[in-house]
Specification:
This protein is an alpha+beta fold. It is built from 17 helices and 38 strands. The structure holds guanosine-5'-diphosphate and magnesium ion (MG). Magnesium ion binds at residues 19-20, 58.
């Protein structure tokens, strides 16, 4: 496989922009599928889970690979709903580029902005496809403006639409200065190149001039050529675009209407021409697992030591499937895989390339590949896998913390064990779904990113594991944080022989910190205890920090330091349980009257017709919303506000009735904030 001819791309955007529809067309035109899949008919290849087909939305990112003009395009179709953001985060992490689909009517929407912020963190090059140009109200110029204003990208059209709405009939290619039209009767398979219609010529010429100038400005040699010739030829423009896109200096904007089969082949051409191959991306950087201060770099060379990242685990009736991106070296059947986090070594049994739910066995996989390994027993999402002698640990994948939670109980007691097993599987699959168990009440607590997220988890439990469960009402997942830096000492004791007692003393310090997830630092702790304490205090179920602080909520934005562990008699190392007991008591003392309640805060974008604006704003005000700005988009008013999640349950019904069904909104979690004192008191009293 020629690496220069491989593209790893994701299709990303807000829900309903048309990501899955675009992907289905790509499968069709590349000859991978003989039938065109449709989301609204429940026949999309990429939305293959029953849960997805019934709801008409993507929940799990699906992978596929298609050939296009002597290249291989590996595609991840991702979900757009904010509740499934983990799927997007981990996909972005392993991609080399992205196609961002934008609705030609609504422009850039909230989730697209969120995704693009993540893409920026990974320096991911992207191009934009303005879809749904066939819909009434489609407006290419407005979509372009929203791209520039909302994402700050240097977005430059490389195409113009020919007409819009019902009149939309093709696109103008500004690089080659041609009109492209499709035979709609033949599923758009045939593409006709024609001269640009006279009435569009002036607009095309000025758009091309803007494109040439934008590209020339990204490179000195090109700028000189441009100044000398007052133009760039097609080859110079193409090469300039390729470089500028890869440097994220320019975002080319294309357009079409996926549902009507218009505009997909040129989009594939653009992916192949301008988005990077694995060779064009910077080498991956990590560190030595044994010595994190020592940097390790791996280039995409099949002969280099293997380095791969496990970015997704998916439950399958025949065992878990691990999705892997290979960065360097070659993955082979029978190979021993070492894990940067664990001591266990696992053997590669089979290697598969995925095509949505189907898989094809391959003997090996080189750099840039996205493959699936069945039956990995120990590795979990975010683990780095390498071969002996090529030790490396990559940065783990970052996932947001869940914001709502609900209790789950099996309908019949006999189902309890199966319910717990099902929840464990879902928890392992989805890093934003947390499951905790309360041994006393027999209840499980399920925490996730939103109501839809939890609902889908419960459905899957019923369908895939045949466990009927009753769920409590969803509640906000409050947390608590530390107010002041404080040190305290805790003791715990146990009887030894002859009436002698062993006493463990732990000095504990709590410090306010930035990150939501609590941190742990071990000071002068008896050496043998360090690994045990780390494991016991880490975030896996039931740790000290998850159990809760002074107010009974999981701790956040704080650091716990175990400064000193002492034992009497001093010669006898205390067992870990004793140290944990002493630490827990010390922590209680350090936290007493020293914490505040935190609540999840959401970024709200609501789009409402002008006549309902004042009513919607007044209502938001009563929900403790802080309005950030108001935008005018045609006859719509876009409200941008920060609002506590607590006040937004059932908002969809409220907004619908307030706007006669014409208002829409999105809520994206942006972090935690301290709950105002009066409200905090009410919450703690259960009001
Ligand atoms: P996703 O959530 O981004 O994956 O969006 P889907 O591909 O599931 O599409 C959402 C809805 O928009 C579906 O009902 C599609 O049939 C429809 N849709 C997708 N592309 C177009 C388009 O180009 N024009 C029109 N009119 N509808 C489209
Ligand atoms: Mg989709």
């Amino acid at each position: 496989m020629d690496l220069a001819r491989l593209r790893n791309i994701g299709i990303v955007a807000h829900i309903d922009a048309g990501k899955t529809t675009v992907t289905e067309r790509m499968l069709f035109y590349t000859g991978v599928e003989r039938r065109m899949g449709e989301v609204h008919e429940g026949t999309a290849t990429m939305d293959w889970m029953e849960e997805e087909r019934e709801r008409g939305i993507t929940i799990s990112a699906a992978a596929t690979i298609c050939p296009w003009r002597e290249h291989k395009v590996q595609i991840l179709d991702t979900p757009g709903h904010v509740d499934f953001t983990a799927e997007v985060s981990r996909s972005l992490r392993v991609l080399d580029g992205a196609v961002v689909v934008i609705c030609g009517v609504a422009g850039v929407q909230a989730q697209t902005e969120t995704v693009l912020r993540q893409a920026a963190r990974h320096d991911l090059p992207w191009l934009a496809f303005v879809n749904k140009m066939d819909r009434q109200g489609a407006d290419f110029e407005a979509a372009l403006r929203s791209l520039r204003e909302r994402t700050g990208a240097q977005a430059v059209p490389v195409q113009l639409p020919i007409g819009a709405g019902a009149e939309f009939g093709g696109v103008i290619d500004l690089v080659r200065m041609l009109a492209l039209r499709w035979d709609e009767a033949g599923m758009g398979s045939e593409l006709h190149e024609e001269a640009i219609p006279a009435e569009h010529l002036a607009a095309a010429e000025s758009a091309r001039a803007a494109l040439v100038e934008a590209v020339a400005e990204t490179d000195e040699a090109l700028l000189e050529a441009f100044v000398a010739q007052e133009d760039l030829d097609a080859a110079e423009l193409d090469a300039g675009l390729r470089r500028a896109v890869r440097e994220r200096a320019i975002v080319p904007v294309l357009c079409g209407a996926a549902l009507r089969n218009l505009g997909i082949q040129p989009l594939l051409d653009a992916v192949v021409a301008w988005l990077p191959s694995p060779l064009d991306r910077p080498p991956v950087r990590g560190w030595l697992p044994a010595d994190p201060a020592q940097a390790v770099v791996r280039v995409p060379d099949p002969a280099a030591p293997l380095c791969a990242l496990l970015f997704k685990v998916f439950h399958d009736p025949h065992g878990d499937l691990g999705y892997l991106r290979v960065y360097s070296g070659t993955l082979r059947e029978g190979q021993q895989l070492h894990n940067a986090r664990l001591k266990q070594v696992e053997r590669v049994q089979q290697i598969y390339v995925m095509h949505a739910e189907h898989r094809e066995r391959v003997a090996s996989a080189g750099p840039g590949s996205i493959v699936v390994l069945p039956a990995l027993k120990h590795a979990r999402t975010g683990d780095t896998l390498f071969e002996k002698g090529g030790d490396i640990a990559l940065q783990p994948i970052e996932f947001p913390e869940p914001v709502i939670r609900q209790t789950v109980e099996p309908l019949s007691l006999g189902d309890r064990d199966r319910m717990l097993e099902a929840l464990r599987v879902l928890d392992r699959e989805d890093p934003t779904l947390h499951v905790t168990f309360d041994e006393d009440s027999g209840q499980a607590m399920l925490a996730g990113m939103g109501e839809l997220h939890l609902e889908v988890a419960l459905h899957r439990m019923a369908r895939d594991f045949r466990v009927a469960a009753r769920a409590g009402r969803p509640h906000v997942a409050y947390r608590e944080t530390v107010v002041a830096d404080r040190t305290a000492e805790g003791h715990a004791e146990r009887p030894l022989a002859d009436g002698v007692r062993q006493v463990a003393t732990v000095q504990v310090r709590v410090v306010p910190a930035e990150a939501t997830r609590p941190e742990l630092a071990l000071g002068a702790v008896l050496a043998g205890l360090a690994p045990v304490l780390r494991e016991a205090l880490g975030r896996e179920g039931g740790s000290l920090l998850e159990v809760g602080g002074d107010l009974g909520y999981p701790l956040a934005r704080m650091r716990l330091e175990l400064l000193k562990v002492a034992s009497s008699p001093a010669t006898l190392e205390p067992p870990p349980e004793l140290v944990m007991g002493a630490a827990a008591r010390g922590l209680d003392l350090a936290l007493a009257d020293n914490t505040r309640l935190l609540e999840p805060i959401m970024d709200l974008r609501a789009e409402v017709p002008e006549e309902y604006l004042s009513g919607v704003l007044a209502d938001l005000n009563s929900r403790r919303a802080e309005v950030q700005d108001l935008e005018i988009v045609g006859t719509l008013r876009v409200i941008h506000a920060r609002v506590p999640l607590e006040a937004m349950f059932s908002y969809s019904t409220d907004l619908r009735s307030r706007t006669q069904g014409r208002g829409t909104f999105t809520l994206v979690p942006i972090g935690y904030e301290v709950v105002p004192a009066a409200r905090s008191k009410a919450i703690l009293q259960g009001i």
